[in-house]
Automatic annotation (TrEMBL):
Transmembrane segments: none annotated. Residues 77-218 form the FIST C-domain domain. It holds the Pfam family FIST. This is FIST C domain protein. PANTHER family: F-BOX ONLY PROTEIN 22.
Amino acid sequence: MSERLGDGFLIGGLTSSRHQHLQIADTLVEGGLSGVLFSSAVAVTTRLTQGCSPLGPRHQITESSNNIIVRIDDRPALDVFKEDIGTELANDLDQVAGLIFAALPIIGSDTGDYLVRNLIGIDPEHKLLAIGDVVNSGMPIMFTRRDRETAHQDLVKMLNILKKRLKGKQPKGGVYYSCMGRGQNLFGKNSEELKTIQQVLGDFPLLGFFANGEIYYQRLYGFTGILTLFL
């Protein structure tokens, strides 16, 4: 769908819910897609912020099968993983759930952008890793940590970039799609994420939702916040 837009771009998020996956598109619907297509006459600016920070260097997957990583840099995948996360976590792998994630760097990105994916399995006997995406030999990979302080710094950085683009003007409105792994799970229960947006950009109409995956151009992200402003 994003490719069919030509010079346009697609932003949004996957529906998340504890029960039914309900959406509103003129009426109440369930499943499928809903959204709005704006013409080029509507001026917008958009940017994303990451919720995880890299651990260790960029590596290369040298052997894999579907979503299972066998070898990284021609070494057992789990050995490389343990080196990057440090001794404390390596000695108790039960701690990494919800804290450590895989990251797939976007080739050609001039901003060091990457897609965060969940670790869904570790095989200590065979030293394998399973992640929430299909991977191939030759692909780059890093490991990241979900970190509130770093995520807040990246959020402020994104907001200041958008503020500079506004050139002193107030946005007419905005939409914000935030991963459900952010919000109170990352910033606490006091709406700190939205308050930070307000502190940097001021008061303006803003709507959005917590997503089970964030769509930005032609990619599906995780643990990101995507803010689009109407100029």
